[in-house]
Amino acid sequence: MSTSMPAVRPWSARSKDRGEGIIAEWRNNPMQSRLPMHLSPRCGARTRSGSPCRSPAMANGRCRMHGGKSPGAPIGNDHARKHGYCTAEAIEERRELAVLIRSMRGLIEEVDG
User: Whole-angstrom Cα distance, residue 78 to residue 83?
Assistant: First the structure.
């Protein structure tokens, strides 16, 4: 067993010539391409780490995951119907009922008192 260091190749043998491999690396990186998909504006949302979202933005400035396309409920959707608690008729009915309850409590106090 030898205690000496193995022969090390000089830096010139390990390094590439100047500019060699840049084109190959550029072709392998899809984000460096000039396709319209890669040149489109990005979503304005922020991740939890604080970095911007890298997904392409839609017309409203957000990507599909951060509030892009949302058509809402379909037309004629019965599940989107209001419950009617805040309609003018329901509010008036509750007011009339409250007045009736107050008058009944006053009548009870007169009878007991």
Answer: 11
DSSP strands (E only) in the chain? none
> What 3-state class would DSSP assign to 92?
helix
Q: Write the burial class of residue 61 (CB in 10 Å: 0-12 exposed, 13-18 middle, 19+ buried).
A: middle
pLDDT at 18 (0 to 100):
56
Collapse the DSSP code of 79 into the 3-class scheme (helix H, G, I; strand E, B; otherwise coil) and give the result. Answer: helix
Q: What is the band of 3 on the pLDDT scale with cuts at 50, 70, 90?
A: low
Gap between the Cα atoms of 111 and 113, Å rounded: 6
**58-98 pLDDT tens trace:** 887 888 888 766 666 677 777 766 778 888 999 999 999 99
Task: Give, in degrees to the nearest 5, the angle at Cα 93 between 78 and 91.
Answer: 65
